[in-house]
């Protein structure tokens, strides 16, 4: 028999090799772990030592891994989702479990020749597992597909949370009923009482203790290690308690996980500390063990029955979910994707089937069929969902939403994104420099973006409709209070609506673009990913935010501005106490869509006497003569003519035919102004910028924006890089 270490090495070698190939097809990694088990297990009996002994060695380790996985899944699951689930999600969650269960039960009665063996062979208990909805499986699938915080993903998660709790209740009830009928009613009653005691201890002893830990952990500080170890010790005790209670062996850790306060500081600390160990070691071993124990050779008289019941139940689950979403006016492709996701099977179901097989409630050939069914579904569902559902298509620019197409003396819809407290000051200073008035008001939607940690489901909060949530997160509360104060200082000229989005950083663009779409936003303001100290040294450099900005630029349903804050764009209160009660703003104009958009924003600012605007037009002698450039030149001439006629704007026009001359001009401006506005002009080649793109460090800013953000050009001025709404 190979040693435990050799078995583990073989599992990881085979799983990683297969995943290297399968990941290109969009197949989840747990399928590769399952394939490793199939290779090492009975299917490779002639090549590798076959073995019941191998499974006996790995069995306890994999069982511990599954318990850890269920505990972690409970921690990540926000039980509040069930309370907040709308009618649509609740109906789908309930009916997608009950109707398939009913259909499977009817099919079971028709194909089961001996009605008196209905409970003896545990067929109904298996039918319950076929119809159940698993929140952890669906959350992992949505994360794999990168649509967990899309509109579809949120609805699926809410429905799955409702369906999961209902499924657990049905499974436990059926198991108790089976014990009462087949064994003894008194034993069933004892099991119910013991299970109730366990749940009460978790709710009224362990959860209050964990809430005490959260309450006594200073804001922004990590939970003490001693408290983390205490929770893990309690988790290990729940495994023993579950085993003692018998029926809830695999439910105990999950129930305890649900009781852990989700999110920071405790929930996120537990997930961060053990996620690598669970997903990287324990879970692969569990899945591989499930594959190793498969024994092919359909010999029992129940296999035909369960194939029929499984297919009827799964088909009904798909059709019910599809019909309900279509009745709710969901597009056909989206509804089909929803039905596929809600019908997905995965690691949780493998645990259920393993539990039933270990307790002699399922023949080996039925177990093998069900594991192969999970393998097939897990390979097909992600591919089909990717083909059916594209969340970015709703951002397509069917309507022009930019600053140029907004009337000059009308309300400008803006979306300001906030990551850290420093962003608040920078954005407020930019809004004040926009000089809103009653005739030119600003409608600002403030979106506070928080990284999802310690829970599986993203959260989106509108603080206009959920005022009580302010007290739950003082960090968001401070952000909102600052903007509300700005609104009061500009009463009648500025309206503020505040939102908080808690989601994975790599998917935050979904929240930003969806909110921009829903609020008819004309321009999104994004903080630049790099921040500096006043002496020019780098304070922070967040590449996750850089990737986020890229994603927004590519998908935004409106114009986008990236704000590079140098800390010198003065706050409104500073202007009141300063001898220079005005903002000095410059706009560098070369021509093109982005520059015209940037100039329009600058022109809107210049209508107030507090702003001293300088427009510097750098043109080349010869920029080509095709139809597109001729049309662009005509549009450029039109907006420039309007600026020349504006007596409040200082206009400078210079001929520039070389990038080095442009760099020299910009170098002389960085200490003269509070803010410089430029167009992004991504991948636009002109004589004025020739040679500069070779030194570009931040392509998302364009050549000029990148130049102004570089260390060589460090000065006091902040920079706003504008990209007009993409129309292609």
Strand order of the largest sheet: 3-4-2-1-5-8-13-12-9-10-11
**What is the helix tally?**
25
CATH architecture of the largest domain: Up-down Bundle
The total number of structural domains is: 3
Main CATH class of the largest domain? Mainly Alpha
Identify the overall geometry.
elongated
What is the total tally of β strands?
13
Estimate the strand proportion. Answer: 5-15%
Mean pLDDT: 82
**CATH topology annotation of the largest domain:** Na+/H+ antiporter like fold
Q: Note poorly predicted spans.
A: 467-472
Largest sheet, in brief, is: 11 strands, mixed
Instruction: Give the terminus-to-terminus CA distance.
Output: 62 Å
Structural class from helices and strands? alpha/beta
Provide the helix percentage: 55-70%
The oligomeric state of the chains shown is single chain
The Rg value, from CA coordinates, equals 30 Å
Q: Could you characterize the architecture of this molecule?
A:
The chain crosses the membrane at residues 29-48, 54-71, 91-111, 123-143, 155-180, 192-214, 226-242, 302-328, 335-355, 367-389. GO terms for molecular function: antiporter activity. Pfam families: CHX17_2nd, CHX17_C, Na_H_Exchanger. One of its GO terms (cellular component) is membrane. The chain has 728 residues and is an alpha/beta fold. It has 3 domains: 4-388, Na+/H+ antiporter like fold, CATH 1.20.1530; 413-466 and 474-557, HUPs (Rossmann fold, 3-Layer(aba) Sandwich); 566-728, Rossmann fold. The chain is built from 25 helices and 13 strands. The chain has helices at residues 4-22, 29-40, 52-76, 80-84, 87-111, 123-131, 135-145, 151-182, 185-215, 225-245, 252-259, 266-292, 303-327, 332-342, 347-358, 364-388, 421-433, 474-489, 508-518, 543-555, 572-577, 593-605, 627-644, 659-667, 702-709, and strands at residues 412-418, 442-451, 459-462, 494-503, 523-527, 530-532, 538-541, 559-564, 583-589, 611-619, 649-655, 675-679, 718-723. Helix 3 runs antiparallel to helix 12 (266-292), helix 9 (185-215) packs parallel to helix 11 (252-259) and helix 14 packs antiparallel against helix 16 (364-388). Residues 467-472 have low confidence and may be disordered.
């Amino acid at each position: 028999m190979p040693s435990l270490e050799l078995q583990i090495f073989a599992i990881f070698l085979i799983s990683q090799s297969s995943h290297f190939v399968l990941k290109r097809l969009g197949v989840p990694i747990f399928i590769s772990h399952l394939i490793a088990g199939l290779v090492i297990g009975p299917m490779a009996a002639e090549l590798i030592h076959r073995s019941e002994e191998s499974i006996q060695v790995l069995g306890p380790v994999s069982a511990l891994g599954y318990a850890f996985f269920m505990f972690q899944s409970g921690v990540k699951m926000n039980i509040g989702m069930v309370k907040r689930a709308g009618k649509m999600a609740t109906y789908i969650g309930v009916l997608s479990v009950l109707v398939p269960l009913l259909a499977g039960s009817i099919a079971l009665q028709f194909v089961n020749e001996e009605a008196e063996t209905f409970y003896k062979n545990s067929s109904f208990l298996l039918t319950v597992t076929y119809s159940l909805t698993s929140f952890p499986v669906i959350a992992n699938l949505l994360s794999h597909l990168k649509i967990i915080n899309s509109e579809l993903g949120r609805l699926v998660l809410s429905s799955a949370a409702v369906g999961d709790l209902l499924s657990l209740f049905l499974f436990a009830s059926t198991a108790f009923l089976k014990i009462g009928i087949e064994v003894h009613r008194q034993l069933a009653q004892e099991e119910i009482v013991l299970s109730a005691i366990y749940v009460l201890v978790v709710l009224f002893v362990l959860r209050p203790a964990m809430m005490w830990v959260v309450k006594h952990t200073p804001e922004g500080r990590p939970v003490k290690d001693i408290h983390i170890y205490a929770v893990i010790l309690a988790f290990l005790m729940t495994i023993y308690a579950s085993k003692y209670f018998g029926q809830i062996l695999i439910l105990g850790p999950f129930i305890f996980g649900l009781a852990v306060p989700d999110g920071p500081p405790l929930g996120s600390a537990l997930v961060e500390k053990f996620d690598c160990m669970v997903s990287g070691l324990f879970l692969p071993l569990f899945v591989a063990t499930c594959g190793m124990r498969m024994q092919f050779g359909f010999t029992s008289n129940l296999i035909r029955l369960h194939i029929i019941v499984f297919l009827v139940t799964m088909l009904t689950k798909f059709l019910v979910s599809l019909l309900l979403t279509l009745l709710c006016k969901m597009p056909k492709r989206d509804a089909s994707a929803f039905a596929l996701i809600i019908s997905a099977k995965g690691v949780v179901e493998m645990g259920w089937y393993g539990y039933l097989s270990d307790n002699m409630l399922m023949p080996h050939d039925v177990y093998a069929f069900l594991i192969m069914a999970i393998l097939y579904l897990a390979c097909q569902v992600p591919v089909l969902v990717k083909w059916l559902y594209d969340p970015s298509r709703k951002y397509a620019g069917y309507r022009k939403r930019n600053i140029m197409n907004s009337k000059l003396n009308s309300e400008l819809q803006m979306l300001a994104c906030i990551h850290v407290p420093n962003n608040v000051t920078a954005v407020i200073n930019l809004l004040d420099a926009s000089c809103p008035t009653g005739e030119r008001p600003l409608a600002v939607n403030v979106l506070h973006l928080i990284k999802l940690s310690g829970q599986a489901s993203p959260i989106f909060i509108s603080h206009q409709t959920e005022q009580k949530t302010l007290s739950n997160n003082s960090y968001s509360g401070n952000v909102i209070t600052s903007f509300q104060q700005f609104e009061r200082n500009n009463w009648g000229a500025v309206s503020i609506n505040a939102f908080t989005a808690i989601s994975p950083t790599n998917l935050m663009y979904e929240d930003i673009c969806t909110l921009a779409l829903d609020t008819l936003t004309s321009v999104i303001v994004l903080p630049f990913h790099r921040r500096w100290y006043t002496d020019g040294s780098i304070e922070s450099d967040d590449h996750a935010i850089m990737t986020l900005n890229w994603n927004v630029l590519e998908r935004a349903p409106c114009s986008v501005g990236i704000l590079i804050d140098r800390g010198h764009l003065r706050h409104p209160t500073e202007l009141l106490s300063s001898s220079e009660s005005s903002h000095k703003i410059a706009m560098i104009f070369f021509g093109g869509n982005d520059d015209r958009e940037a100039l329009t924003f600058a022109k809107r600012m210049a209508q107030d006497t507090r702003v001293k605007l300088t427009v510097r037009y750098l043109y080349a002698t010869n920029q080509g003569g095709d139809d597109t450039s001729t049309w662009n030149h005509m549009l450029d001439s039109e907006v420039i003519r309007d600026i020349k006629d504006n007596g409040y704007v200082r206009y400078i026009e210079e001929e520039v035919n070389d990038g080095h001359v442009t760099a020299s001009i910009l170098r002389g401006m960085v200490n003269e102004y509070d803010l410089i506005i430029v167009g992004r002009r991504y991948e636009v080649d002109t004589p004025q910028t020739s040679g500069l793109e070779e030194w570009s460090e931040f392509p998302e800013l364009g050549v000029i924006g990148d130049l102004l953000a570089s260390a060589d050009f460090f000065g006091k001025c902040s920079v706003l890089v504008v990209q007009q709404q993409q129309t292609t």
